[in-house]
């Protein structure tokens, strides 16, 4: 029987599972104790929770307010919802009190993150110890500056995460891709809109955050706190419409997505024509242009660290009649001075990480 440890969201996992994850599992092992501590703290403050809810609903202190036990609480990726039942002379209703999970939002490293979020993937990476590049008060006047800081943030991910690479070849490819994206950014940033207007976009929009009725009419969206103004070129048809990740869209899966994309765009154009806009941009035209120029893959790289190398290999390098493996060694030399030493360091980081991870499993088993 393999040794397992308990990890938040994934339950009991063994070493073989943990060692094959891209994420820093050493950091994620801290989540469950932090969650238990938070739950205990909230449970001891249930009288305060009731007072807060009575105040919000305009109720009297004599009205009944019951907080559900922690086993009934509903936890998401970044929040926990606490069911509360309220009874008064004119009201008998159940409510949800939504609380942020500080241990998922880098609150310890960067106090105030819970109040001013940016993009969910960035917060997740910051929560694993990646140095912050974008402050919560930073505002970008141009798309170029935003792209530059995003790529710098991804540089920090490679430098700081001990589990950032699989081996020396993978390290060179990741260094090369970041160099390549910087070199090609001018091709995919539209000159006409590089200084705005920037478009409000939902960066945590996925199927579980979309609610529809029995006839599939949209009735509700949740997790709106991740909305931010981004370059218009970043607006794209959601890849999850066909049930696949962006890094899976190749061959037949890409053809399937293209059919869905065309159908989506037909409805998108109809909706856009009926709306009164404060700007003269046609978002449908920009989305079609970005797809046709294959700039959509560049912007997906800017959105997703984990898909970046796969997208560069499958969609960006072929545009220039080359393969990533053919240029990785040369391009990686331009990512930093003494690049060969960086490769050696990252491979050594990985070896120490694997040893530390093994120690965690052995220690938990001994306990």
Automatic annotation (TrEMBL):
Domain of life from the UniProt record: Eukaryota
InterPro entries: AGP_Transferase (IPR051678), Kinase-like_dom_sf (IPR011009)
Stated name of the protein: Aminoglycoside phosphotransferase domain-containing protein
Organism: Fusarium euwallaceae
């Amino acid at each position: 029987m393999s040794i397992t440890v308990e990890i938040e969201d994934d339950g009991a996992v063994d070493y073989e599972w943990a060692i094959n994850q891209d994420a820093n599992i050493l950091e994620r092992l801290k989540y469950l104790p932090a969650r238990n501590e938070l739950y205990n703290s909230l449970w001891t403050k249930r009288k305060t929770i009731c007072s807060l809810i009575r105040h919000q609903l305009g109720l009297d202190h004599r009205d009944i307010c019951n907080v559900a036990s922690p086993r009934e609480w509903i936890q998401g990726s970044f929040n926990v919802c606490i069911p509360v039942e309220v009874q008064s002379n004119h009201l008998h209703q159940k409510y949800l009190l939504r609380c942020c999970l500080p241990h998922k939002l880098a609150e310890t490293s960067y106090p105030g993150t819970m109040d001013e979020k940016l993009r969910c993937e960035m917060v997740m990476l910051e929560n694993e110890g990646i140095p912050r590049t974008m402050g919560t008060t930073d505002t970008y006047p141009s798309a170029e500056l935003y792209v530059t800081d995003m790529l710098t943030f991804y540089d920090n991910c490679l430098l700081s995460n001990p589990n950032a690479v699989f081996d020396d070849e993978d390290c060179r490819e990741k260094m090369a891709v970041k160099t390549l994206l910087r070199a090609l950014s001018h091709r995919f940033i539209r000159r006409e809109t590089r200084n705005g207007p920037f478009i409000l976009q939902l960066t945590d929009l996925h199927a579980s955050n979309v609610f529809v009725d029995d006839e599939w009419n949209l009735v509700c969206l949740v997790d709106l706190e991740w909305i931010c103004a981004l370059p218009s070129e970043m607006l794209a048809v959601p890849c999850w419409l066909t049930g696949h990740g962006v890094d899976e869209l190749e061959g037949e899966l890409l053809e399937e997505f293209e059919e869905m994309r065309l159908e989506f765009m037909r409805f998108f154009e109809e909706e856009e024509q009926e709306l009164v806009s404060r700007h003269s941009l046609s978002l449908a035209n920009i989305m079609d242009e970005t797809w046709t120029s294959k700039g959509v893959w560049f912007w997906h790289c800017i959105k997703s660290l984990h898909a970046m190398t796969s997208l560069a290999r499958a969609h960006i390098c072929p545009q220039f009649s080359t393969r990533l493996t053919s240029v990785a060694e040369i391009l990686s030399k331009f990512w930093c001075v003494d690049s060969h030493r960086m490769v050696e360091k990252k491979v050594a980081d990985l070896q120490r990480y694997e040893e530390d991870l093994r120690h965690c499993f052995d220690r938990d088993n001994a306990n």
